[in-house]
Amino acid sequence: MTLEIKDLKKSYKDVAALRSLSFSLSPGRILALLGPNGAGKSTAIKIMTTLVPPDGGQILWEGRDILREPRKIRDLVGYVSQELAMDKVLTAVEFMQFTAGILHLKWRDHRDRALQLLDRLGLKEAQDRQIGKYSGGMKRRLDLATALLHNPRILILDEPTTGLDIEARELIWSLIRDFTKEGGSVILASHDFQEVQQLADEVLILDRGVVSQSGTPQALKEQLGQFVVRLQTREYMTARDQEQAAAVFAGQTGLRVLNHDDTWVALAVQGESAMSEVQGTILSHLEGADLPVFSLNVQHPNMEDVYRFSLRGDS
Ligand SMILES: Nc1ncnc2c1ncn2[C@@H]1O[C@H](COP(=O)(O)OP(=O)(O)OP(=O)(O)O)[C@@H](O)[C@H]1O
């Protein structure tokens, strides 16, 4: 079943947290939600998990607007929030039983699934220990196990692996992949480009409450260019150095200045040229303008480039 989000909006008094958010997500797909602090990601997630009512918009599932049926949303969605709110005295199994009660699930029907999930997330040995004695990584894994207890079709994860070691991250990533193999859909808010690179089938970048870019990671990278070049004419470039260097490339076919207000000047290169050819072209342009070269880096764009340059509004 495809999830369709249509024109969600939310303001807090005079702060327009979410101006307009629309996307659709098919079964088995992972959508990464990126954006700087304050972009509106948490607001979007809170609406999609019924924690906050929107000012407008729709969430369609099987053609029905389920915003009018919060109970249906809670059945469909498993949610792992940024902040962990867990009892310290309960054991993991007791915590899952407690959660089952809140969700009106019969524990005797869900106990086996709970134990399987704890095992799958590497918590079997610790399942009868008090959560207060768990490490941060163990708590996160327990949170994910709990979010999956009612067998949701959609998993919404707000920075699920922040601060975790690589083993815990990979365990969580593999569980997310398994969830999609069984037809589940995932919405993942993350600031971690490696995580996005690893998991996302689709990426949506929010900026000041609106979608600034969306598409598959491959399409977004291709849209940026074949290569991203970062160059310095000297180690500490002044604003004037940057403008001078940027001016050399302004209007050149197949070259686009991405920015020149950082420690380097960044360019996007379109076309099919080999990396060495691109390097040669850049160097000859700089030489032609009588500018020195301190450093030159040419690479295929990655998700961080897509993100960085989409927010500047110049890609
Ligand atoms: N309860 C609230 N009351 C007033 N303003 C709020 C509230 N919640 C969020 N905002 C504002 O709405 C805007 C969007 O915030 P939101 O938390 O959705 O962003 P975010 O993309 O999740 O940021 P972060 O990456 O820091 O979690 C911000 O300007 C924020 O200050």
Describe this protein's structure.
Pfam families: ABC_tran (PF00005). It comes from Sulfidibacter corallicola. This is ABC transporter ATP-binding protein. It is a single chain. By secondary structure, the protein is α/β, with parallel strands linked by helices. It folds into 2 domains: about 5-220, 3-Layer(aba) Sandwich (Rossmann fold), CATH 3.40.50.300; about 225-300, Alpha-Beta Plaits. Helix content is about 35%, strand content about 25%. The protein contains 11 helices and 14 strands. It has helices at about 40-50, 70-75, 90-100, 105-120, 135-145, 165-180, 195-200, 215-225, 240-250, 275-290, 305-310; strands at about 5-10, 15-25, 30-35, 55-60, 65, 75-80, 155-160, 185-190, 200-205, 210-215, 225-230, 255-260, 265-270, 295-300. The strands form 3 sheets. It has a 6-stranded mixed beta sheet, with helices on both faces. It has a 4-stranded antiparallel beta sheet with strand order 2-1-4-5, with helices on one face. It has a 4-stranded antiparallel beta sheet with strand order 12-13-11-14, covered by helices on one side. Strand 12 and strand 13 (about 265-270) form a beta hairpin. Helix 8 (about 215-225) crosses helix 11 (about 305-310). The two termini are about 35 Å apart. The model has no long low-confidence stretch (mean pLDDT about 90). The structure holds adenosine-5'-triphosphate.
